[in-house]
Amino acid sequence: MKTARDRRDSRWDAHREQRRAQLVGAAIGAIRRHGAGVGMDDVAAAAETSKTVVYRHFGDRSGLYTAVCESVAAVLLGEIRSATIEAMGAPDGGPRAAVSAGIDAYLRLIESDPELYRFVVHRPLLTQPTGSRTASPPQSADPVNDLVTVIGDEIATVIGDRLRSTGNEPGDAARPWGHAIVGLVRGAADDWLIRPNGMTRERLATHLTDLAWSGLSGLAPHVQEDHA
Question: What is the pLDDT along the chain (228 residues), one digit of tens a residue?
């Protein structure tokens, strides 16, 4: 009997996860259609259900926001990793090309999905009056900050590998540099989203890569001196 109950529970778990994924997809579609200021009524309409059902699966607006962020983060991180790995392995590639590819992958999300980016980064849904039908679930880690941390660590690995290839031991410098680059790109990307002024994504990626890599190249000798 216990095995039968476990199997039934497992089937319901799979169903709930599938339904949550469908609702996240509907929410993303509603964000693209109505903009970053989308409301829960819009999300429910896109999912062809009621707000009560949405709240049943996510608890409150924060739960839905977190689920959307996690979905976007998984896609973005996958694209950044694929781009940097491909750039590192290309015949004319290398660490600088990998940093450039990672920056371009980040900017590509903004160019192709500006409202979704605004929704994830600027959290407009969380500033709206709550309409929770149930008690809020325990708060999980911030998916945006988690994503920034992972991307910063990825860039730090690229920087560390590059310094070692030139005979410089990065020590503890690669990590803050990697996260500084992420902050640089995010700040410039937010400004570009508001005031593009005709600048293409490719041009912005080039500017940011030049700035980041020129700074790293200038700092490399100091790293060598610090660890000599």
Answer: 555 555 556 667 788 899 999 999 999 999 999 999 899 999 999 999 999 999 999 988 889 998 998 898 888 888 988 998 898 888 888 778 888 998 999 999 899 999 999 898 877 666 555 544 443 444 455 666 776 787 788 778 877 777 777 676 767 888 888 888 889 999 999 999 999 999 999 999 999 998 887 766 655 554 444 444
The DSSP result for the chain, as a single string, is -HHHHHHHHHHHHHHHHHHHHHHHHHHHHHHHHH-TT--HHHHHHHTTS-HHHHHHHHSSHHHHHHHHHHHHHHHHHHHHHHHHHHHHHSTT--HHHHHHHHHHHHHHHHHH-HHHHHHHHH-GGGGSPP--SSPPPPP---HHHHHHHHHHHHHHHHHHHHHHHTT---TTSHHHHHHHHHHHHHHHHHHHHH--TT--HHHHHHHHHHHHHHHHHHHHHHHHHHT-
Distance CA 195, CA 190 (A): 9
Ordered by start, the domain boundaries in the chain are: 65-125+139-219
- Tokens found for residue 224: 């060598």
Q: How much is the pTM?
A: 0.74
Q: Which amino acid is at 111?
A: E
Spatial separation of the C-alpha atoms in residues 10 and 70, rounded to whole Å: 23
The yes/no answer on whether domain 65-125+139-219 falls in CATH 1.10.357.10 is yes
> From residue 205, how far is each of 106, 126, 219 by CA, in Å?
9, 31, 21
